[in-house]
Specification:
342 residues, 60s Ribosomal Protein L30, Chain: A, alpha+beta, Helix Hairpins, 9% strand, five-stranded mixed beta sheet
């Protein structure tokens, strides 16, 4: 009966690794989408900042031109008022000239009015010269006003062109975001497939060892498989197991395309028992880091590319089993391998 129950357990399907792979993939997609959103926000803020700078500069120029135009208009109105005054004076002078001309026709006043008429004619000539100068100034002001209007029109055209470029930039940013999303989704899917294949291969290679197992999205070696107690040098039995693991990693390197940035992270963990003061390592943290580094060095010596490996030590601070009994402490003493993005 016990044999039958054991067979039923061995035939059960373990869905947990697939579920964890799916959740990890979903998390990576969410992280990528957040990164794309932040990147888009950054480019949009840069575009909007540049646009605001251009608008502020254009508004300042328009305000300056408006003030100049108002000043020129005031000057023009003053000149027109002066011209009207001069015209009125000219008409009065002409009326006076006609009156004096009538007096000249009288014989008694002919001698005394000659000098008066000459003076009046000089005044009339002077007023006419002033009038011509005023007209020239008015014409010059009209030309300046026309030039200012042309400049304002050019500034409005430049503003319209800037707004058009801004809309085109936003369209390009949105298109870039969509393409990046598609590319990342493809890379995540490919890496997930390679991770499943890699773990499947490791299960085939190391299936006879009960102290080597899959926990979530990680392949876990108990420390006793690779190291003696309190040591970071790989023992002969561990060397044999890691050699088989290195063969699988080398096969994986040949299969994964070069454009996918991936890495196998080797994590060292210990139990919560403090180390004795006479050993080589003062803390569990140092021991876990040294063990992870030893595994990475071994894999590199076996031919695994260094750019696809990284080591990290966590000491006793990330246990997978609670409690201080021997079984829980043994489970926490482990080396984990995780295939992930770099």
């Amino acid at each position: 009966m016990a044999l039958s129950r054991s067979r039923r357990r061995s035939g059960a399907v373990d869905y947990w690794p697939g579920f964890v792979d799916a959740m990890a993939t979903l998390l990576l997609v969410i992280i990528f989408l957040l990164s794309i959103f932040m990147l888009a926000q950054f480019f949009l803020s840069q575009e909007i900042t540049g646009r605001d700078t251009v608008l502020n500069r254009l508004n300042a120029q328009i305000a300056e031109l408006t003030e100049l135009l108002a000043l020129e208009r005031a000057t023009g109105q003053e000149l027109q008022s002066r011209l009207a005054t001069l015209t009125s004076s000219l008409e009065d002078a002409r009326a006076e000239q006609e009156r004096l001309t009538g007096l000249l026709q009288t014989p008694d006043t002919e001698d005394t009015s000659g000098s008066i008429i000459a003076n009046l004619e000089d005044q009339v000539d002077e007023e006419q010269a002033i009038s011509r100068e005023a007209l020239n100034q008015v014409e010059l002001l009209n030309q300046q006003i026309s030039a200012l209007r042309r400049q304002i029109a050019a500034l409005e055209d430049a503003l319209d062109a800037s707004e058009t470029r801004d809309r085109e930039s936003q369209t390009r940013i949105a298109d870039l975001g969509r393409r990046l999303n598609v590319a990342l989704a493809q890379r995540v899917q490919e890496l997930s497939q390679f991770r499943s294949d890699f773990f499947g291969r490791l299960r085939q290679i190391l299936s006879q060892r009960s102290d080597i197992r899959v926990v979530g999205d990680r392949f876990v070696f108990q420390s006793e498989v690779l190291f003696d107690s309190g040591a970071a040098d790989i023992n002969p039995g561990g060397s044999a197991e890691l050699s088989r693991l290195a063969e699988a990693v080398i096969e994986l390197e040949a299969a994964i395309p070069s454009e996918i940035n991936w890495v196998i992270r080797v994590d060292g963990h210990t139990d919560s028992r403090p180390l004795s003061g006479t050993g080589l390592y003062a803390t569990n943290w140092e021991l876990s880091t040294a063990r992870a580094t030893s595994v990475v060095r071994f894999l590199i010596n076996e031919g695994v590319s260094p750019e696809h490996l990284m080591a990290a030590g966590f000491g006793e601070f990330q246990p997978i089993a609670e409690g201080e009994d021997d079984e829980s402490l043994a489970r926490n003493r482990r080396i984990e391998f995780k295939l992930t993005e770099r």
